[in-house]
Design a protein that fits this description.
The structure is a single chain. By secondary structure, the chain is an alpha/beta fold. It is built from 17 helices and 20 strands. The protein has helices spanning about 15-25, 40-45, 45-50, 80-90, 95-105, 120-130, 145-150, 165-170, 195-205, 225-230, 280-295, 300-305, 335-345, 365-370, 385-390, 400-410, 435-445; strands at about 5-10, 30-35, 55-60, 70-75, 95, 110-115, 135-140, 160, 180, 215-220, 235-240, 250, 255-260, 265-270, 315-320, 325-330, 350-355, 375-380, 395-400, 420. The strands form three sheets. It has a nine-stranded mixed β-sheet with strand order 7-8-6-9-10-11-12-13-14. The protein is globular. The protein starts with 6 loop residues before the first strand and ends with a helix.
Length: about 450
């Protein structure tokens, strides 16, 4: 990929866009950053661009964005946006930020995607590899943008890379050494013309450039993943909590086993895995597969699995007050993640649900809500939709804010019950992102 001396436009002035621009500058290119929004938050984020003498514009995509040989598009920019359409008309090469970063990363990339579990799995992967003595960066759709760290990764070091469908939309030659697909269920349909197959095929692009020297790790229990998957040129390794396999990772009674080509073996007890829930068992199996591909020490892997404490905003225990437990699952931004959350607890649940709807079909969790949920507090722009769907089956109350929902739940919940924030929606109607929403929830709980 030629960068030096080239004019390269970067669309989007948030984390990945700023990381891409600075990387281009380091490589001798001439970046120009453009964002159609103009908010106080953006104005703060572009201050660092000025420090590096990187030109930018806010509030408009001027004609200058097309004066380039290549355009790097941030994940938040839809493929049908005007700026992307015009660039295509002008035959400008369009790539994603992960494509740019991967082209200059010398280490091994373990790319992780899926509708649910990406952040937990990526974080666990980085934790296990580092615990086993392999220097590993954690980046992508989590924490640092890939472009922020790509040039710092040396040969024989690793990147555990969380990858969203949005980031995969504009890849060209992106080729991870290991690709992991955790699951596929409907999500972000508003971004994909309400066509589930469009979303699914974006996920499957993660392995499209792999060959026989690469590995594809897949969840055999994900019915839709198996339905949409056709073939791959890479070595395929499956994992399953229900089916025993000759090659791959599986659960046999209370033992998690791994075998590859009949020789690389691993066994641990299910209770060696500190993360609760069957979904986290699946996530852990994916990491075990990746770890054993690179021959990591089995005893050290088990140590890491015992020590790992989970991820903020994903079924995160916040506090117990008078026997009531408060759980922050703000990262539960789709219906499928709420399904897993509701299955993770045996106690009656006060569920805080709602936000910016993404075409949700709540039939998937209807039976679990009837079975496990004592009351729903509906918040955000989708509150009426939540109320209209659920009020015939369970008590539902619309609240004007997350804080007021926490207060009401605190007044009604009794010892042995759960107050769970698992919104099934994006956060942008009320918050900057899911992390902001989770922090507001925790602050409200600690203020009780």
């Amino acid at each position: 990929m030629e960068i030096k001396g080239k004019n390269i436009s970067v669309i989007g002035a948030v984390r990945s866009g700023i990381g891409a621009a600075k990387m281009i500058k380091k490589l001798g290119g001439i970046p120009f950053v453009s964002d159609s929004s103009d908010t106080e938050k953006l104005r703060q984020s572009v201050l660092s661009l000025a420090d590096d003498n990187i030109e930018f514009e806010l509030g408009v995509h001027s004609d200058k964005v097309y004066n380039c040989t290549m355009m790097v598009v941030s994940p938040g920019v839809p493929s049908d946006s005007i700026v992307v359409k015009k660039a295509k008309e002008k035959k400008i090469k369009i790539i994603s930020e992960i494509e740019l970063a991967a082209a200059f990363c010398k280490g091994h990339i373990i790319a992780i995607t899926g509708t649910n579990g990406k952040t937990t799995t990526t974080t666990l992967c980085g934790y296990v590899f580092n615990h086993c003595g392999k220097k590993t960066f954690t980046a992508g759709n989590i924490g640092l943008a890939f472009s922020e760290i790509a040039l710092d990764v040396n040969v024989d070091e690793f990147v555990a890379l969380e990858v969203s469908s949005f980031q995969l939309d504009f890849i060209d030659k992106f080729k991870p050494k290991v690709a992991i697909i955790l699951n596929i269920t409907p999500d972000h349909l508003n971004r994909y013309e309400n066509k589930y197959e469009n979303y699914a095929f974006s996920k499957l692009k993660i392995f499209e450039n792999q060959n026989h020297s690469d590995f594809l790790i897949m969840n055999k229990d994900s019915k839709d993943l198996m339905k949409f998957f056709k073939s791959s040129g890479s070595v395929i390794i499956n994992f399953s909590t229900t089916t025993k396999m000759s090659d791959g990772c599986w659960l046999d009674d209370e033992t998690v086993s791994f075998q590859l080509s009949g020789y690389e073996k691993f066994n641990c007890r299910r209770n060696d895995i500190s993360l609760p829930g069957e979904h986290n068992l699946s996530n852990t199996m994916a990491v075990i597969c990746a770890a054993k591909i690179f021959g990591l020490n089995s005893a050290k892997i088990i140590e890491a699995l015992k020590l790992f404490k989970g991820v903020e905003h994903r079924l995160e225990f916040v506090r117990e007050i008078d026997g009531v437990k408060y759980i922050n699952d703000s990262k539960g931004t789709n219906v499928d993640s709420v399904w897993f959350a509701l299955r993770s607890f045996d106690s009656p649940i006060f569920l805080i649900l709602g936000g910016q709807d993404k075409g949700n079909d709540y039939n998937q969790i209807k039976d679990l809500v009837i079975q496990n949920v004592k009351k729903i507090f509906a918040i955000g722009s989708s509150a009426e939709k939540v109320f209209n769907f659920f009020h015939a089956f369970v008590k539902v109350e619309i609240k004007e804010s997350l804080q007021s929902a926490v207060l009401s739940a605190n007044q009604e919940a009794r010892e042995g019950e759960i107050v769970l924030l698992s919104p099934a929606c994006a956060s942008f109607d009320m918050f900057d992102n899911y992390e902001h929403r989770g922090r507001v929830f925790k602050e409200a709980v600690f203020n009780l």
